[in-house]
Design goal:
The chain is α/β, with parallel strands linked by helices. Helix content is 42%, strand content 19%. The protein is built from 12 helices and 10 strands. Helix 2 packs across helix 10 and helix 4 packs across helix 12. The longest helix is centred in the C-terminal third of the chain and has 22 residues. The radius of gyration is 23 Å and the shape is globular.
């Protein structure tokens, strides 16, 4: 308590006056940032992946819209490493004033199952601002790979077990888990090559260093368009509008392996509700704008406007789903 502030609490002090005095005291003791208009300075959006990847692209798309809507720069801060845990913990430890946010993906839920001891509790240590959107996962191969379909891939893998490597944006990522479970169902053994984000993984597969790739559609689109990658299957219920000739995984003979990468904006726990609500409203406005909708659809994704409660529910259900997947597939962090 500020020693310069004195409030007499004598019995003679009227009850209403005492209440008013305590309210003044509470206001005086609030942190300075809570009394300033939001945002009071540039806002940092932390991304747990390297620049150029899907999460980075989504974060920069939202940063541009939020900068225009809230009148302060929103800048992306890439902090790759430890399966995104470095970025998550940086946001958890940040001041809960709305000036440090996290652009999260499925790893936020998966890492609570993948890492022991549990590195954080996303439901307690963070607060959901908004779900942003989702992009389907694809299985792709280099242009010179000797297989152009899931059936050919399975045959090649069975002929030489363990000889085919597949790249992903990280250990425990949605593409990794989806590919591992597909391999188990197909009765094949693939060798996982995890990367710290998708950009370098895509580059290496396109260059022939690794033959196979499990990645979200957003990150492979440019290389597919240039002929350096070929999509063997899309892990969505319907064919992707940007890869209309690529069959779904169900059409390829394996049902139940639909997988998408989702993106969400999070803030540190204890961030004032007024700030979270304002951010949520601005995100919803951005997601309904033609510019953001077109940007997401052009790379094979879709925006997902909705309530904060819907994001909380998704995070909880995804955590439970990943606990089951990690246990069944026996996946361990690198």
């Amino acid at each position: 308590m500020n020693p310069s502030i004195r409030i007499p609490l004598s019995p003679a002090l009227p009850r209403r006056a005492a209440a008013a005095a305590m309210a003044v005291l509470a206001l005086a003791l609030q942190p300075a940032w809570s009394q300033q208009p939001y945002p009071a300075r540039p806002v940092k959006i932390v991304v747990g992946y390297s620049a150029g990847g899907a999460v980075d692209i989504v974060a920069r798309t939202m940063a541009q819209s939020l900068s225009a809507g809230l009148g302060q720069p929103f800048v992306v801060d890439n902090k790759p490493g430890a399966g995104t845990n470095i970025a998550v913990k940086a946001v958890i430890d940040a001041a809960p004033d709305g000036h440090t946010l996290l652009m999260a993906a499925n790893a936020l839920a998966a890492n609570m199952a993948l890492y022991q001891p549990v590195p954080f509790d996303a439901e307690k240590d963070l607060v959901a601002v908004s779900l942003i959107g989702r992009v389907p996962v694809v299985i792709a191969a280099g242009a010179n790979a000797p297989y152009s379909s899931i059936a050919q891939l399975v045959a090649a893998a069975k002929a030489k077990p363990g000889s085919i490597a597949f790249a992903t944006p990280g250990n425990g990522s949605t593409p990794h888990l989806a590919a591992e479970l597909f391999a188990r169902a197909a009765g094949i053994s693939l060798t996982h090559v995890p990367y710290r984000g998708g950009a370098q993984a895509v580059t290496d597969v396109a260059g022939g260093q690794v033959p196979l790739l499990a990645m979200n559609a957003l990150e492979v689109k440019p290389q597919v368009a240039s002929g350096k990658l070929k999509v063997l299957a899309v892990l969505s219920a319907q064919r992707s509008p940007i890869f209309p000739d690529a069959p779904t995984i169900a059409e390829s003979g394996f049902k139940g392996f639909e997988a998408s990468v989702w993106y969400a904006l999070m803030a540190p726990a204890q961030t004032p509700a007024a700030i979270v609500d304002r951010l949520h409203a601005e995100v919803q406005k951005a997601l309904r704008s033609p510019e953001v909708m077109e940007r997401m659809s052009s790379v094979g994704g879709e925006v997902l406007p909705g309530s904060r409660a819907a994001m909380v529910s998704l995070l909880r259900s995804e955590r439970q789903r990943y606990e089951k997947l990690v246990r069944e597939a026996g996946i361990k962090p690198d």
